[in-house]
Amino acid sequence: MTKPLQNKLLAYWRADFVSAKGFYLRAALILVAFLVAHLAGLREYTTFITGTAAGTGASLRLSAIWGMIYLTLYFSAVILAPILILAATFWIGVERWNQKRRRANDH
Amino acid sequence: MLDMKIEAGTVQPIRRRLAMAAVALVVGAVIWLPLVHLFFAKPSGDFYLAKGVSAKARELAAQQMATWRNPESLRRELDRMRATNAEWDFMGRCFLVWSLANLGLREPAAKPAYLPVMDQIIEETLRLERERGMFVFLMPYAQARPFEAKPARSLFIDGEIALMLAARRALEEKPEYLPLLRERVDQIVTNISNRPTLVAESYPNECWTFDHAVALAAVALADRLDGADHSGLRDRWVAMAKTNLTHHETGLLVSSFTRTREPLDGPEGSSIWLIAHCLQVLDEPFARDQYERARKELGRTILGFSYAREWPVSWRGEADVDSGPIIPGLNISPGSSGLAFVGATAFGDTDFTASLAATLDFAAMPSRTDGRLRYCASNQVGDALMLYAATLGPLWRLIRVGSDHD
Q: What is the mean pLDDT of residues A43-61?
């Protein structure tokens, strides 16, 4: 990994939650976590909603735990992550516009 | 400096950053939330077609048939449903047989594939009932006290089995099923008409409008097949229901009641959508009236996604195995939302069908393998119900106009 890219990733990792970078980072984390849960096959356990245990032989209780984890990550990935990305993009846009305006005022 | 944060070379008070974050999140939500449904929206024809077989019906049928052809997967599916509710095992069989009959009437060339599965389900169901009694498909409380009618019969079991037998014979005559259907119809007619109240039990002193509607629809189909005429009983029952089983505030039929017609529940989404569908072959204007009332009282659409409540605003019951867990806030009922598909397709409500289908693809976790579709957040009975909603029509047309075989 090149030094500038490494520095950039580190900056994102260290970014405060309440910042555009923080929003991007959280969105990325949600998407990665969802991908891991999906690839791990947790989707099967969402059958717990019907009061039925998953066909994997898991108990209803275990199905509910895995199923809830999957549902939380799924809805976060589909609803929350895009909102965070749009919010971060909007925030950056506003900051750039403010900077331009300040520079114009300084001149 | 405690109240300050540094980012991108600028110093911002934390309060200003929090305000900016809130504004940005609101902007993101306002842009994104109305767009989400577009990723799941498809024309209603993807779920239901008036003629032919929709893509979804074909995929759902392929999965259901594969399950019934594989003894191991079948046992696994039925066992995990029975662990929660033995009724689901029974209803999953019924919805599938009724669906396959509709599919066969829509696509006669595929009948040879459907008929053996239908016969397998019917024979296996009758065998279980014969060997272990009707309680094998009822919830345990059915044995907590005796049925009031003697001998004990459950209209739930008789009605749905009768409709399975009639649906099979409607697709293609099977002489062995003729006496079985006749016997079942006689039982239904006797049980309902024996009492001046015109009601029959499904559980001890517990009668369900859903079960009466299914049983009388089965009698109507049997009449069409065998040339009998029980229209007098059907008309009397509908007149009785309009007078005695209607919820005052909404005009919707109540779900359950005692043998003396004392309501045990108010109107429920997990009953009324299918009741309205069955009423289509008993009293079409009343059926449409019930559907439209249910649509107004229970159907909801938010941001392009539709769902159904279990209860109208004017009445509240307890969540149970029929309603499924109620999602708070919006009062979403998985049971009512699933059955709302039956109402939507039966009454040609294409907008509602399309937006319910968007919700299904968004929230029920579809899983596709080799042209087969199942919903991970559902189970066999839920998927069989979806298949029924995606295929219904031909059997009812057969009763109403008698023209599908002509």
A: 86
